[in-house]
Amino acid sequence: MERIDNPTIIALDLTYKCTLKCLHCFNSSGEHDNGFKEMTDDEILNFCDEIILCKPSTLCLCGGETLIRKELVYKVIKKISDGTNNHTAINMVSNGELLTLEVAKKLKESGINMVQISLDGASPETHEWLRGKKGSFESAIQAIKNLKECDITVSVSCTPTKKNIHEYSKAVELCESLGVQSFRAQPLMLMGRASKNLKDYVPSYLDYLQIRKVFNNHIKNNKSKMITEWGDPIEHLTSGAMDWDRKNIAVNIDAYGNIEISPYIPIRIGNIKRYSLSTYWKKGLNDIWSVPFVKSICKEIKSAEEMELNNKYSTLPKNFIEKQLYIDLVDTENFNSLTLEEILSKWSDKSE
Ligand code: SF4
């Protein structure tokens, strides 16, 4: 089957440092005590040359709190928007704590397209219970206002828990009044810190239906044009189980330079400091969903709640809690036919 030449979506984690230590953080940001070194500014800026060659439709800068490396953020945005002649939409994720008006202006000047801010309710009590810091609600609201003042598109993500379902309607209204362009929610993922902290706060099926109802009402009455979006965080994994021949279109790079199959699978299959992205892409990253061990994992995943992957394959590490497995797609003979059993027997910890 024909494969596409380059990834069309690239997600790049800039850091796992964070100003917050949220109860639900799926990648355990703020406590990556694993001895690995995050990529330097130069390494990331060099990687931008590769991104420019790929000319993806979207680049997402993620973390951690991206603005902890704000000078780097400006340089990356500027380099990519200039290098692709504004072809690539550049989005970033932030908790808003460091997003002053001055920072918003610089993001705009650099060429940012959209910033996603996290807001987990309509009151300080609800938001700050999850975020663990007094004042974080006000910071998020102020960040939204600063972005709006600079005419930057704002998306808000609201993580559902048992504590905030009752506030969804008000949170949607609040964001609408602030001029937010899209309001997103997705099922709570019991991974990373969430798996330690939030087992008792997972919304029920009826709770999720309640959110859908709020969204439907919003769509019916929407005068402001704010979009409400319900996302499925594991859709890229479950759809793999339905269509093994589908082309891969996306690449996720962690802050150490490791290439992820998915941020939710604890196996890294390369490192951009070792070989170029295009080498990995051509050697099999473009066809990753057809690799037997990837299929085996996808078949095990049925819902966001199962994301700890400790059912059938209990030997897999817990993602972002234990060290991830590393097996290099380029260096490993017969990578494209490896089974999960072989991976588990062969793997050694060689993460960069
Ligand atoms: S959820 Fe976001 S803001 Fe919270 S600790 Fe993780 S990266 Fe930081």
UniProtKB/TrEMBL annotation:
The keyword Chloroplast does not apply. One of its GO terms (molecular function) is catalytic activity. It comes from Caloramator proteoclasticus DSM 10124. InterPro entries: Aldolase_TIM (IPR013785), Elp3/MiaA/NifB-like_rSAM (IPR006638), Radical_SAM_PqqE_MftC-like (IPR050377), rSAM (IPR007197), rSAM_sf (IPR058240). CDD domains: Radical_SAM. Residues 4-224 form the Radical SAM core domain. This is Radical SAM superfamily enzyme, MoaA/NifB/PqqE/SkfB family. Keywords: Iron, Iron-sulfur, Metal-binding, S-adenosyl-L-methionine. It holds the Pfam family Radical_SAM. SMART domains: Elp3.
